[in-house]
Amino acid sequence: MATRVHVSADEFLRDPSCANWCELVRGEVLRLSPTGPLHGHVVGNLYAPLAAFVREHRLGWAFSDNVGFRLPVAEEEGDTVRSPDAAFISYARLPALIPGFVRGAPELAAEVLSPDDTAEQLRDRIDDYFTSGTRLMWIVDPTSRRVTVHSASAPIRSLGVGETLDGGDVLPGLAIPVAALFDGLEPRG
After folding, report:
1. pLDDT tens column, 63-88
2. Between the CA of residue 157 and those of 6, 112, 139, 175, what are the distances in Å?
3. Cα(16)–Cα(19) distance, rounded to whole angstroms?
4. Is the CB of residue 168 less than 8 Å from the CB of residue 108?
């Protein structure tokens, strides 16, 4: 029987083979596939208005993918570092940018689904974020062109292209047309 090797968050941070496309889940390195242009384009469409709103209102920090959040879940099983495709964390939680991983969860985490994401992996991510203090999560599905909104203070909602994604009680006033997330996906020709 193979022995599982557990890695701490500090070891994970220093491991050059984990510089991109990895997360640490309960001490085990989870290698993720690089994303394709569809995924990257949708992430950009999501991140741009989020970052502009956060910056304009001086609310905190907006991050695109590859920023690690060290989540305080199941620490007895090992460290967990998740990296959402886009995130917001307030100045109250992170007063200044720091080296290394952000300790704690973002108030908002967004994930753009990839073809190899499983329902179980998605449930685990959602559970890890909300258990750690995330209050709002957007799951963006480029295939169906829908966004599923998970909130600590409201029921789950599913939004389509004719609707508007909002920041809820995390980012009041933020409004992003769902159609804008998928802008540019139509074939050119």
Report:
1. 998 888 989 887 667 778 888 999 99
2. 37, 16, 10, 15
3. 5
4. no
